[in-house]
Structure formats: structure tokens, C-alpha cells
Design brief:
The structure holds three protein chains of three kinds.
Chain A: E1 3-10, E2 13-20, H1 25-33, E3 51-54, E4 57-60, E5 73-75, H2 88-95, H3 105-118, H4 124-131, H5 142-153
Parallel strand pairs in A: 1-5
Antiparallel strand pairs in A: 1-2, 3-4, 3-5
Chain B: E1 3-15, E2 25-31, E3 37-40, H1 50-62, E4 69-72, H2 90-117, E5 124-126, E6 131-134, E7 137-143, H3 144-155, E8 160-165, E9 185-197, E10 203-213, H4 220-239, E11 271-276, H5 298-310, E12 316-317, H6 321-330
Parallel strand pairs in B: 3-4, 10-11
Antiparallel strand pairs in B: 1-9, 2-3, 2-8, 5-6, 6-7, 9-10
Helix pairs in contact in B: 1-2, 2-3, 4-5
Chain C: E1 2-5, H1 30-35, E2 50-56, E3 62-68, E4 78-82, E5 112-113, E6 119-125, H2 128-136, E7 139-144, H3 151-154, E8 180-184, H4 187-193, E9 196-204, E10 216-221, E11 227-231, H5 236-247, E12 254-257, H6 273-284, E13 288-291, H7 294-299, E14 307-315, E15 321-333, H8 339-349, E16 359-367, H9 382-399, H10 403-410, H11 429-439, H12 446-449
Classes of the chains: A alpha+beta, B alpha+beta, C alpha+beta.
């Protein structure tokens, strides 16, 4: 199987990897780059645990061909904090006890960030819509919704990506 | 062509821990020279908060602030045996093991402090902020760090402890079923309010009101996490999910989350919860385990609410729009039962 | 969403003045979760990691005639084929670690398959895709067999045998019965004296635990002739012990690391992925990863088993339930796993948190040709609680009683005797019912608001009634067509139980207000007349509640001479096929 070079930025850092024919982005991020924050939940694009941002838009990395991110700018939860400072979404998730097993949290935070970056003052319905592609089996969603609304209140959307 | 309101009720209890006993858990607690403690377990945190609840139990028992304790789990080389996290056993069994281990460690720490302060250990108290002081004479004190340092470098004592908790095994009588299943039970009661569309058969959960008795809410925020999340799962069991929609026929079994249905964030209902605490005599600080029983009352409460709303008794889960419509049709129309 | 604490209830039983207990302190793992740093099993990088996929049965039930992997093993990236004969000790049952039940399940099957998805071969390859391609190239010749999917059909004499270790399609209890019995009092006499009989049939179909993280394990050689296994298991030592037994390796050569799991809900106890990953690692010398994809997690991984319950209640017009009878069928699927134990747990739970003086139950663990069942949140209890609480609502409706008041009337209280012959303690059902009703503005009358778990229990309610027992349903009888369900040969009681008299509720402070009329015109129920309390004849003395010390039970079928009564437990041979693990120090529990 031939390997193809792919270059992109991840959380502001420049990355270069060789990807297999047909290899998906989730696999490349986790095993190629070593960013373990996006998670494998289904491999079918129905759980959202693998969500990353590509040029600010949420994408399911398990269904994204790795070679298609050539030259793009990616974000993952692993790079959400700025240095030692948590992103307001992360802080809000903690204060609202919005994570139990934590496995959906990476994907949830990406979906939430994408929402607040384009809509800093969402309604509850808009938050619900934004996270409807992310399955959580533990929390019942309510604390996650409240955390995102709270983060919006504290100006999370106006923070530079 | 109408929306019918209905409400349903259910009440339950739930056995805490693996039935029939013989399911032990162990814990090891030890301090570094600064009086910072590690709790070594091989117990599993599935998200229910095992690490944090055992951390708080250890801190309480040791008499130190929670920031001075970390829980390390799970490694079979360093953590002593634990049966596992299931059957709502974790808080109860592991928590009790942690208490026993922490008590032993605490007694060594107090003995060391007693020697440094030249008093009897029985005259000492901890303030939960990192100090050990003489009862009645609080100015005569020493920090937990100093006591632990003295123990290890001066007195040659390990500030550590071991714990195990085991519910004794029980036999089962083959003729009568007599047995000793567990030692304590949690309780719950729940009212669910729904709306049923008699044209589509869809059931919309509008509100849940509940009371859960958990022995002791060791960490109230984490108990809330379990109750909210568990009630959501109960709702999901009642109205959405199954791997065999035509059980016992296996056809149309879902293979992904498009087909395995669960309520999403747009389907959830407000839930107002009351927490009651009747401590289990043998629970860690009276704690029972809320992790499983939180879902159980929702299933029958929803079925009862559907009957109340449209007069259709659905005895096979999950309750689907198809089943509701077939029931309404068989009855010749929706038959609301009225409310008390 | 709101949460309130009703601290005033049971306040005198608690010290609320604690330091760290009772505080909503931030979770130790919260920071890891929101930064993506929490280390789940799969968050470990290995050079040269191999992937494992299985060849699985497409049939409910089939004999395996041949398995041809000759093409597969030569495909690109394929490192190793794992066959049933490569598993050192290819026969187990999960609860063998506790000496409960017989080994009945291979890790990889070689003779027949009993459910769709059962694995017959494993392939280890460089990438997941290479492993899948190789799996697709394996040719299996199947001889399809008749199958059975319904629990009651499976008990019929002509049903196909699902699990050859249990040829009656039921788990054997106590080496005597094909079900677990619960017998307390005399339901038949009580039914004849009841004002009305209410019956119901309830069913719950299988449920997938569906944690967002699927089952998986990575095994790798350690530096010291041991194997490290990173695992999603819910039970570290359970999985370690199961792996040690299946692979015939000393337990201290296995180093299991886990503890941070992306949801479990009971679906990560079966310990199927760890032995496979470790075996692949042993055979290849490389780190090996075995992770279920979502389709496997959903249809191959064990779900909560389906359940079917028949309830029959004898009810008085004043709302008291005086007799309750259950027949319960747990659908274990093709293998036992944990279901044998669910039956016991479910039996102990009956008849629910209510004081019912006559209870009878027959609870079955049935084998069918479907995915084996396992634990799930509420294991052994969730399904029967659905049945019980739906039935309670039915009864309340029939007698025209407020369903909430109906629960309080029948609720158990401190000191009551329960059907498994232990005293009820630390009860709080009534208080939960009262508080939930209050929150929901569900009106109940004053005397029900004043009821308490701590008042009105015990006394006559603590006495174990004269009990009718039977020896129906011995192992094999049902399949032979003898003593089918419903035909009981009862041992006549020496003195018949007297008619149950009406329950005396605690005296109300004021005469009860007339019952409110619901909109649909339901009849109001009458307040129960005061009468002497129930007097059972010849009560048994309550059993002493002592920790059980296991006596020497009969040995396993495969064993030679029975264990001597006088030999010490640790000196007795472990009479169980395969590798001996975790022999309980207090001897055998039950076979």
C-alpha cells in the first residue's frame, strides 16, 4: 500500500504525516500524530466522539479521509486550552459536572466550540441543535447544555480560536 | 387528532451490591513524608465517580483535606484485589475498605503526633485542614505533614493502612429461596408526565418528579449526575431502545446509532429531584449506591402514564408509536383515564 | 432541572456535620476529561501494534463442518491466524471464578455455533482493514441447525438443544431443579380467599449497554516475561482471572491496567477481549489490539437479556395484596455468562418492596439461540420492576384506588418479614412515595401523608407464615414432558392457613375525606374496615441471620470421589475442568 504525505496544522502546530490509502483522519490523529483526544466510539459517524474542527467546522474524523486535510487548519480538544489556561467551555463543563465517563467530552467540546465561534449568544434550542450529533450515555445532556450556555454567557464565543 | 396528557407513578427499592455476598474489595492507603496520601485500588471508574468518592471517604476518615489525597486506580500490580464496579457495589464495598485502611493509617499518624507532642494519641483530634491538635488545647498542635515526616524518619513507622470489606457469602435454599442477598437497599419513587399524540402514537415526556433515597449523598453533585443520567436512561429504555425490536424475532436488529434509538438533547424532559438519606448501618458514612436504581422506576412509570393518557396498557418494552397506535385502534379510540 | 435535599427526613439517623463527606467537591478526573487527557485503554501508543478481527457465525445455530483460512493467511499484512486449538484452555464460564456453574463457552468455537456473531477464528494483521479483508476471505462450511428464539418454546420437549452443557435449555439450580424457587406462605389458599385476581404478562426485550467507548483491550509484552493488558473492563481482577484461566498462565504474569473507562453499564464484565488480545500477543510477540466496532458492540457484545414475567395477584377490595405469584423467564441467550446469578438476584427481589404475606415464584434461566446476555444497569431487577410496577398500577385501577395511596398501603416497613425470610430494615419506600407525590402535586389523603416506614411494621408482619412447598420442575422433567409448568403437586399443609383478616392501618388523626373522583368517573375506594390483624397458623421461627459458612456441597459432575465432610476446604481438589482459579477459601459454594 502506498503512503501519501499530508501536511496540516493541528491546534496551531504544523504537522506532517504519511497516510495509508483510505486511512481515516481519526486514526491518523491518534496513531500518526499522537493526539489521543478525539475518540473512537463507532467508526460509523453516528456518535460524534471523534469530532474535530477543520477550518472551524465540526467534522467526524472517523469518516474523513486523512488526505483531504492537506493544507487545512485543524482543532482538537487536546489543544483547546491556551497554554495553562482552560477555555471557558472546559471551565464550564467542570463547574457544571458535565462529564462523567468523559468519553464524549472531547467531541462535545468541539461541537460546542464550533457553535460559539459562529454564534456567541445561542439560544437553548441552538445549543441542542449543535450537540445533537454527539451521543452521551451518562449525563442525560442537561448539564452539558447548561455548561455551554454558561460558557456563552462568559464570552467564550468572543475568544479567538 | 389530539394530544392527551397522562401521568404515571412507580416506586422501587434496589439491593446494594452483588447478591449473595462473597464479593470483597480491598484498599491500601499510604502517606508520603509530607503527609500527602495515596489510596491504591484496583477498582474501576466507569464515570460514576469511583475515584472522587473514595477520595472524599479517605480524606474524611484520615481527617485531612481532600486536596491531600489522591486515588490511584487501576493497576493489578499495585492495587489490591477488588471484585469490580457493578451491581451498585462500588461505593459500599470499596468505600468501606477505604475506611478501614484509612483508619489504620490515621492511627499511625496520630501515634506519631502523640509522640512528638508528648501526649496520648487518644487526646488528639484532626481539624480536617491539615493539623493535629490536643483536644481542649488547640494551640498545642502539629501539622499532618510533620507527623508523617516524624513517623517515617524518626520513629520508623509506616503511615499506611490496609482494608478489606466483604459481605459474607450466603447460600440459597433450593426449596424456599431463603437467602441473605445483601445488607441494604436504596429506594426511589417517580412521577412522569407525558403527552401522547393519538394520531402518530408518539409519546413525549414532559416532566419527571422524583424522590431517591441513597443512604448518604457522599458527593451531592455526583449523586445528581447519577440520578439525572440514570433517569434519562430509564426514559430511553421505556420509549426508545432495544437490540431486538421484534423480540423474540431477531430481524431488524440495529447495528448503529441511527437504528439504535436513544433520546437526544432535544428529547429530554425537566426532572425535579428530591434526595433522601437514610444511612445504611453498614454503609461508608451510610452511603448506598444510586447508580442503577435511578433508571428503574422510569420504565413502569412511563407505561402507567401511557395507560393514563390514552387507555392503552403496553406490557412489552419498548413502548413504540406503533404499539400505542395499535392499542388505540384496538380500543376504538383514545380513552383518557383522568387524574387524581 | 432541580435537586433538593430533604434533610429533615431521617435526620436523627445522620450526623450531617462532616468535613469532606456531603460536599460537592470537584471530581478528581474532571480536568482530564475536559482536556482529553484521561487515559482510556486505547490511549496508549505502541510501535508495531497489530489489530485483531474475528470470523463470526452468520447463523443462529449451525455445526461447523470446516474452516478454510488458506487464502486468508497469505493475504497482505496477515501475521497470525488464531484457531480454537490455539487457545490453551478453550472452555470457561465467567462465574467459574466463584465456583458457580459449569464451564460452557469456548473463546473460539470449533464444533458448533449457537448465536449469530459467535467467533470461530481470529485474525491478527497489521491494520484493521487488512484483518477485515482476511476475515472476508475465510471460507466456513456450515451445517445449519434448527434454532429456538422464544424462552417458552425453548422449554418444550422438542426444542433444539442450544447449549450442550445444559441439555434441557435451562440452567441447573442446586443440582435439583430447572429453576429457582421462592416459597413463602400459601398462595393457592390466599387466591381462593381473595376478592379478586389480577394477572399480567410483561416482557422486556434485550437492551444494549451502548457506552460511547466500545469494549477493547491492548496487550503487549512487558520487559519481564509478563504481559501488560490495557483494558476497558469493569472488573480488573475478574478479567485477569478469566484470562489466566483461558490461557493457562500464572496470574502474576499478567499485568492489567485500566480503571478509566468510557462508560460500562454492565457491558464490560464479560472479559472476552482481554484473553484474545493477550493470546495474540503471546503468539506473535507483538502488541495486539482487539477493539469491538459499534456493530459488534451492539449485536455481538452481550446485551441485557430479555425477560418475560407472568404475575398473578390475589387482592382484597380494600387494596391489600394478599398473594403474589411469579413465573419469570430470563433469556440467557446461547451461554450462561452471568445470567445464572441474575435469577438469584431477581428471586431475592420479589415480590418488590411490599408486604405480601404469600409469595410464590419460579424463575428460569433459559438458553436460546441468540447473543448471550450479561449484566446491565439494574441486572436481575429492572425487568421485574417493570412488571411489578405495571401490575401495581393495574391493580390500583381495578380496585379504584389512588395508585400512590395504594403503594403506601402495601409498602414494606421496618421489621416486616420479606419473602426471602429476612427482616426488612432501613426502609424508606413510603417516604420516597410521599415526597415524589408532593413534588408532582399528586394529591393523597392525610393518613397516607402521615404513614412512615418506621411505624406499623413487624409484629404479626414479622412472622414467617406456614409455607407450602413442592418438588416440581426437577432437572429433566420438563423436557421429558412430565410435570409441565403449572402442574404443581403440593405437600398439603398440616393445618390450613386461616382466612386473612383486613389490615389495620395506623389510626388516622381525623376521619378520612371522601376519595376524590378522577375525571373519568372511577369509583372511589372504601377505607379499609378495622379488623383483627392477620394470624398465621404454626409460624416458623425466624431463621437466625448468621453469615453462611458453606458446607460441603456435592461435587461437579466431572469430579471423581465426593469431597469428604471433614477435609479442609483448601485440601480438597478443585473439581472443575480446566485451570483452577480463585478457589474460594471457604469451600465450594454451589454447583
Amino acid at each position: 500500500m502506498s503512503k501519501k504525505p499530508v501536511q496540516f496544522t493541528l491546534n496551531g502546530d504544523s504537522k506532517a504525516v504519511f497516510v495509508e490509502d483510505g486511512q481515516n483522519l481519526l486514526d491518523v490523529l491518534r496513531r500518526g500524530v499522537g493526539d489521543l483526544s478525539p475518540k473512537y466510539g463507532c467508526g460509523q459517524g453516528t456518535c460524534g466522539a471523534c469530532t474535530v474542527l477543520i477550518d472551524g467546522e465540526p467534522h467526524l474524523s472517523c469518516l474523513t479521509l486523512a488526505e483531504t486535510v492537506e493544507g487545512r487548519s485543524l482543532n482538537s480538544t487536546g489543544g483547546l486550552a491556551q497554554g495553562a489556561d482552560l477555555h471557558p467551555l472546559q471551565d464550564a463543563f467542570m463547574r457544571h459536572f458535565a462529564a462523567q465517563c468523559g468519553f464524549c467530552s472531547s467531541g462535545m467540546l468541539m461541537a460546542a466550540k464550533a457553535l460559539l465561534d459562529r454564534n456567541p449568544n445561542p439560544s437553548r434550542d441552538e445549543v441542542v441543535e449543535a450537540i445533537s450529533g454527539n451521543i452521551c450515555r451518562c449525563t442525560g445532556y442537561e448539564p452539558i447544555i447548561e455548561a455551554i450556555l454558561d460558557a456563552a454567557q462568559s464570552g467564550a464565543g468572543r475568544r479567538s480560536a | 387528532m389530539s394530544i392527551h396528557k397522562g401521568r404515571g407513578f412507580a416506586s422501587i427499592n434496589y439491593p446494594i451490591g452483588m447478591n449473595l455476598g462473597g464479593d470483597p474489595s480491598q484498599a491500601l492507603v499510604h502517606s508520603n513524608p509530607d503527609g500527602k496520601f495515596a489510596v491504591a485500588l484496583s477498582s474501576i471508574d466507569l464515570g460514576q465517580g469511583m475515584k472522587q468518592v473514595t477520595r472524599q471517604i479517605a480524606a474524611e476518615t484520615l481527617g485531612v483535606p481532600v486536596e491531600d489525597v489522591y486515588v490511584d486506580t487501576a493497576d493489578s500490580d499495585t492495587g489490591p484485589h477488588c471484585m469490580g464496579s457493578f451491581a451498585s457495589r462500588g461505593t459500599h464495598r470499596v468505600g468501606n475498605a477505604v475506611i478501614q485502611a484509612a483508619k489504620e493509617a490515621r492511627s499511625v499518624m496520630l501515634e506519631a503526633a502523640a509522640e512528638e507532642l508528648e501526649v496520648n494519641a487518644a487526646d488528639l483530634e484532626t481539624d480536617g485542614k491539615g493539623n493535629i491538635f490536643v483536644r481542649g488545647a488547640p494551640s498545642r498542635s502539629i501539622s499532618t505533614g510533620e507527623a508523617c515526616g516524624a513517623a517515617q524518619f524518626k520513629h520508623g513507622k509506616t503511615v499506611s493502612g490496609r482494608g478489606i470489606f466483604l459481605i459474607p457469602m450466603s447460600d440459597v435454599d433450593p426449596e424456599t429461596g431463603e437467602m441473605t442477598p445483601v445488607s441494604c437497599y436504596a429506594h426511589a419513587a417517580l412521577v412522569v408526565d407525558i403527552e401522547v399524540d393519538d394520531e402518530t402514537g408518539e409519546v413525549d415526556v414532559k416532566q419527571m418528579n422524583s424522590a431517591y433515597e441513597v443512604g448518604r449523598a457522599l458527593n451531592p453533585r455526583m449523586v445528581e449526575q447519577q440520578l439525572v443520567g440514570g433517569a434519562w436512561m430509564g426514559m430511553s429504555h421505556a420509549l426508545w431502545e432495544t437490540t431486538e425490536p421484534y423480540y423474540p424475532d431477531r430481524t431488524h436488529g440495529p447495528t448503529d446509532f441511527n437504528q439504535y434509538l436513544m433520546p437526544g438533547p432535544g428529547d429530554i424532559a425537566p426532572h425535579d429531584i428530591a434526595i433522601l438519606e437514610r444511612p445504611a448501618p453498614d454503609g461508608p458514612y451510610g452511603g448506598k449506591g444510586p447508580g442503577e436504581m435511578c433508571a428503574n422506576p422510569v420504565l413502569p412509570a412511563v407505561a402507567n402514564a401511557v395507560f393514563n393518557a390514552v387507555g392503552v396498557r403496553i406490557d412489552e418494552l419498548p413502548i413504540t408509536p406503533e404499539k400505542v397506535l395499535r392499542g388505540i385502534k384496538a380500543n376504538g379510540g383514545a380513552q383518557p383515564q383522568g387524574q387524581w | 432541572m432541580s435537586v433538593e435535599f430533604r434533610k429533615e427526613l431521617f435526620a436523627n439517623e445522620r450526623d450531617d456535620n462532616l468535613n469532606e463527606i456531603g460536599k460537592g467537591t470537584q471530581r478528581q478526573d474532571a480536568l482530564g476529561h475536559v482536556t482529553g487527557r484521561s487515559p482510556y485503554f486505547d490511549d496508549h501508543l505502541f510501535e508495531g501494534l497489530l489489530q485483531i478481527r474475528c470470523v463470526r457465525s452468520p447463523h443462529h445455530h449451525a455445526r461447523i463442518r470446516s474452516v478454510d483460512y488458506s487464502q486468508a493467511e497469505n493475504m497482505p499484512g496477515v501475521v497470525r491466524i488464531i484457531r480454537p486449538e490455539d487457545v490453551p484452555n478453550n472452555f470457561n464460564t465467567l462465574l467459574s471464578l466463584l465456583n458457580f456453574g459449569r464451564d460452557d463457552e469456548p473463546l473460539l468455537s470449533s464444533k458448533k455455533v449457537s448465536y449469530i456473531g459467535e467467533p470461530v477464528l481470529a485474525i491478527v494483521a497489521g491494520t484493521d482493514r487488512q484483518a477485515r479483508d482476511a476475515v472476508a476471505a475465510v471460507r466456513v462450511e456450515w451445517e445449519v441447525l434448527p434454532h429456538v428464539l422464544d424462552v417458552e418454546e425453548a422449554l418444550k420437549p422438542d426444542a433444539p438443544v442450544v447449549n450442550e452443557v445444559y441439555p434441557n435449555n435451562t440452567f441447573d439450580y442446586h443440582d435439583k431443579y430447572d429453576h429457582q424457587k421462592l416459597r413463602y406462605g400459601d398462595v393457592e389458599t390466599a387466591f381462593s380467599q381473595a376478592d379478586r385476581i389480577v394477572e399480567g404478562r410483561y416482557q422486556m426485550s434485550p437492551i444494549e449497554q451502548a457506552p460511547v467507548e466500545t469494549n477493547g483491550a491492548i496487550a503487549a509484552p512487558e520487559t519481564n516475561d509478563r504481559f501488560v493488558c490495557y483494558t476497558s473492563t469493569q472488573a480488573l481482577f475478574f478479567s485477569l482471572g478469566t484470562a489466566a484461566k483461558l490461557l493457562n498462565v500464572s496470574s502474576n504474569r499478567l499485568h492489567f491496567i485500566g480503571g478509566t473507562v468510557g462508560g460500562g453499564f454492565g457491558g464490560k464484565v464479560d472479559s472476552l477481549v482481554e484473553p484474545m488480545a493477550i493470546l495474540a500477543c503471546m503468539l506473535t510477540g507483538k502488541p495486539c489490539r482487539f477493539v469491538w466496532d459499534r456493530q459488534e458492540e451492539m449485536q455481538v457484545g452481550a446485551p441485557r437479556g430479555g425477560e418475560r414475567w407472568y404475575l398473578k395477584d390475589g387482592v382484597m377490595n380494600d387494596g391489600r395484596i394478599i398473594a403474589r405469584q411469579f413465573t419469570g423467564y430470563f433469556d440467557s441467550g446461547a451461554y450462561t455468562r452471568l445470567s445464572s446469578y441474575a435469577i438469584i438476584k431477581g428471586t431475592a427481589h420479589l415480590p418488590g418492596p411490599y408486604h405480601i404475606p404469600n409469595v410464590k415464584a419460579d424463575v428460569f434461566c433459559v438458553y436460546t439461540n441468540r447473543t448471550p446476555a450479561t449484566a446491565m444497569r439494574g441486572f436481575g431487577v429492572t425487568g421485574v420492576d417493570f412488571a411489578i410496577e405495571s401490575q401495581m398500577d393495574k391493580i390500583a385501577h381495578e380496585v379504584g384506588m389512588n395508585p400512590v395511596e395504594f403503594r403506601i398501603l402495601n409498602a414494606y416497613r421496618d421489621g416486616d418479614m420479606k419473602a426471602h425470610r429476612r427482616e426488612a430494615k432501613n426502609c424508606a419506600l413510603i417516604e420516597c412515595v410521599q415526597v415524589a407525590a408532593e413534588k408532582a402535586n399528586w394529591p393523597i389523603r392525610d393518613e397516607f401523608k402521615q404513614a412512615s416506614s418506621m411505624v406499623g411494621g413487624g409484629g404479626e408482619r414479622a412472622k414467617i407464615p406456614h409455607t407450602v412447598t413442592d418438588e416440581d420442575g426437577k432437572i429433566g422433567e420438563r423436557r421429558a414432558g412430565r410435570a409441565g409448568a403449572g402442574q404443581t403437586r403440593t405437600i398439603a399443609p398440616s393445618t390450613p392457613a386461616p382466612a386473612p383478616a383486613a389490615y389495620t392501618p395506623p389510626p388516622p388523626s381525623a376521619p378520612p375525606a371522601p376519595a376524590p373522583q378522577p375525571a373519568a368517573g372511577q369509583p372511589a375506594y372504601a377505607h379499609p374496615a378495622a379488623a383483627p390483624a392477620y394470624q398465621p397458623a404454626a409460624p416458623h421461627a425466624p431463621p437466625p441471620v448468621t453469615p453462611a459458612v458453606a458446607p460441603a456441597p456435592p461435587p461437579a459432575p466431572a469430579a471423581p470421589a465426593p469431597a469428604s465432610e471433614t477435609s479442609t476446604p483448601s485440601a480438597r481438589p478443585v473439581n472443575r475442568p480446566g485451570y483452577s482459579r480463585f478457589a474460594s477459601n471457604s469451600g465450594f459454594r454451589r454447583r
